[in-house]
Amino acid sequence: MMTLSPSPRWFAIAVVAGLTSVVPTIAGEHLWPLWLVSLAVVILLFCIDASLAPRRRHLEVDLEIPNPLSVGVEQTADLSCRSSYGRVRTTHARFECSHDLGFPDGVAITLDGDGHTTPISLRPRRRGAMSVDAVWFRYTGPLGLARRCLRVSVDLHIKVISSIHAVRALALAFSNPRELMHGLKIERYTGDGSNFHAMRQYHPGLDLQTLDWKASARHRRLLCREFRAERNHHVVLAIDTGRLMAEEIHRLPRLDHAIHAAMLLSLMSLRTGDRVSLYSFAATPGALTSAVAGTNSLHSLLDTSTGLNYSDEETNFTLGITQLAAKLKRRSLVVVLTDFVDTVAAELMIENIRRLARIHLVVFAAMRNPEIDQLTDAMPRSMSDVERVVVADALAQDRRTVIRRLQRLGIHCVDARPEELGGGLVHRYLEIKRREMV
């Protein structure tokens, strides 16, 4: 497909030629054909320039895109172009592709006989199957008078998956703590637990709560209890995929922030010997994956999370949580990643999570919107600013109320910004693991 149109330079020349030819016509009526001559010259120049502009057969185009791409991660595609016609003036490229791939609106490129590769930055905004159908080139002829738009079909199909890079970056912050070894092998440590191992002599720095006063009295020296870290616990990551989770924060949907935090927690759980399952729910419940163990299973969880679709329907907590509780046959650590707006909308959520917490240990994870925090901390300068601050403060107060109600029910809560959610979940998991609360 190709279109042809005059360039701004041609319009400028046409205006100048028309005005110039009008002056002799005013001096003598018999000179009016000069206006027609100037118009014909301008049109002739346009036709000559259009005929000299390269066509589709003169162009060699190759677009290389990493496949798969990672959502929310800036990556680079390479556009290689070569013109057998020679150098082409003022060339711009535009991509006919899925909007969520995050290609720029237009890219200036160099098109000549030598061939050049132009790096193009793109940042996918959503997961799923994407496509790049064609590349549009806009360039002018040698005289810069005729502008040609040419469509070159590339027909590429790209898969956008959850970002393993984001999980790895977050995991670096938790690569050294001693707690990560709990459960990976038979590890002895002092502290709360259920598997008593042995007694050891107290030395400064140990937790005073581990002191066994009766044993110390018998042996006439301070002794502490040691426990073994258990493993093979069942960790269930229940991810809400409803309407609220499709809202974007930091140019990424809440759902993808939740998936990255869940994958980080999965990595930590698999490294400590626990088994991990993935569960999703929105208006209807999804499937509960079979429990996997070992760090090699992280990729299967990542592939499963890539298939979680965005939804524009309200979340049915009653159906989703009830279905999950019916599928779990033993006491498990259930991490619910969701969000809410106010206390009224959160009533059903609280009630169903309370029922789930009667049998299982529940961690409730929600994402605070940084814009709400900024509004509540901002200094109002007008009446409209005061209104925004009042509304933001009311939303923040409702959020604190819901979190306090959940905590009073014995539910562990992590309410953090998207970039801090993964770290908060890992810290809470390590605390639960150390205290053997499951």
Give a summary of the structure in a few sentences.
The protein has helices spanning 8-27, 33-52, 164-171, 213-219, 254-271, 298-306, 317-327, 347-357, 370-377, 383-408, 418-435; strands at 2-6, 59-64, 69-70, 75-83, 88-97, 107-111, 116-122, 128-140, 146-161, 188-190, 195-201, 223-228, 234-240, 248-249, 252-253, 275-281, 285-288, 333-337, 361-367, 412-416. The chain is built from eleven helices and 20 strands.
Care to describe what's here?
- This protein has 438 residues and is an alpha/beta fold.
- The chain has 4 domains: 7-52, no CATH class; 56-161, Immunoglobulin-like (Sandwich), CATH 2.60.40; 164-183 and 230-435, 3-Layer(aba) Sandwich (Rossmann fold); 188-228, no CATH class.
- Helix content is 36%, strand content 29%.
- It is built from 11 helices and 20 strands.
- Strand 18 (333-337), helix 8 (347-357) and strand 19 (361-367) form a beta-alpha-beta unit.
- The longest helix is centred in the C-terminal third of the chain and has 26 residues, at 383-408.
- The radius of gyration is 32 Å and the shape is elongated.
- The two termini are 64 Å apart.
